[in-house]
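pinned: reference chain
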Amino acid sequence: MQPKTVIGILIVPVLLAMAFTQAVAATSSKKKPSSSTAKKTATSSAKKSVSKSAKSSKSSSRARTASSTRYRSNVVRSAAYRRTVVRGGPWREPTFADSTDGDWVDGEDQQVRKAAVDALGPYNGTVAVVDPYTGRVLTLVNQKLALKSGFQPCSTIKIVAALAALSEGIIDRNTVLRWGRKKLDLTTALAKSDNPYFATLGEKLGFDRVSYYARLFGLGERAGLNIEGEQPGILPTKTPDAGLGMMTSFGSGIALTPLELAAMLGAIANGGTLYYLQHPRSPEDVATFIPRVKRHLDIQPWIPEVRPGMSGAVEFGTARRAAVQYSEPILGKTGTCTDQRTPTHLGWFGSFNDVGRNKLVVVVLLTGGKPVNGPVASGIAGAVYRNLSVQDYFAQARPISPATLVSTQACCSR
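pinned: its structure tokens
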């Protein structure tokens, strides 16, 4: 082999190695920039990253702010909705409201008023507390509502139907009425607020006698004496479209005011004297207060006949909530229905207690939607009695004027 050939064979691998090395270096220079370039690139990347992060943070903050604003707005709208819209029926009155707004309280018994306001709580309604032996209104919570022309009495009208039927000799306390497999006496029918029982009494009495006794007990006329703004309730001039049975079991066609119910219950509590209710406007009015008798009702023989049913309502009937945490006797009648004139759902409870020297009549009327009913109203009345009982109110000797004392003794000695 010639020398030139050998040299060529030896040089070729060297040249190939050098070419490979240069190629690798060139490739590395493309992949790895210089230190200054790397710094510039890193700074640029960091700025871009910070910019993106800031934009993302601002966007996230705006989203959170918008979300929070929407949430607060929804909460406000939701709260307003709950305050103004009644759910569960076609009713237009709110279930909850400030029921003390605009009341005149200077002549009221402040201890009784606080007990009534605390018991009513947030409900949209009225509480009337009356002394059954003088007719003095000790407190009237939500006077705007209480002095209106009234609402359908619902099942509280059953007291009128019972007294009317007893007075006419149609039933006595032990008379059992039957329909289908059911049979009830007056006590159970009042306690359980049985509609067919009192519808039957209405049919037996007839419209004229029902109307006579309703007017005798003070329905359809102002219960108060010179109570500013008071409107009378309404009694129909003919049998309502719903029928006479609905009139004596649900109060169809009748508008009853809380004051009318309080006056009637006061007459049952005191033995038959229907007083004009008076609502003193000042301490001076209280000091010179004189009871005024509207008329005497000849119901003394029948009061013992209705009392067991009214006490039974609290003990085992529709007004059991009145007795919660309160062991002293309460007698009363619930009522639950829809007043079509307003329209509003109603919860009534008319009552009086039977303990101590300071007996009271407590009437509760709730307006609103589905949450209100007679049992709820009875619980509020029970809370009024309980609030006063824990303060020994019923055992206290309250000072009264000589004129009041003379009138009271004249009333109760009959």
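why pinned: The chain has 14 helices and nine strands. The longest strand covers residues 330-339.
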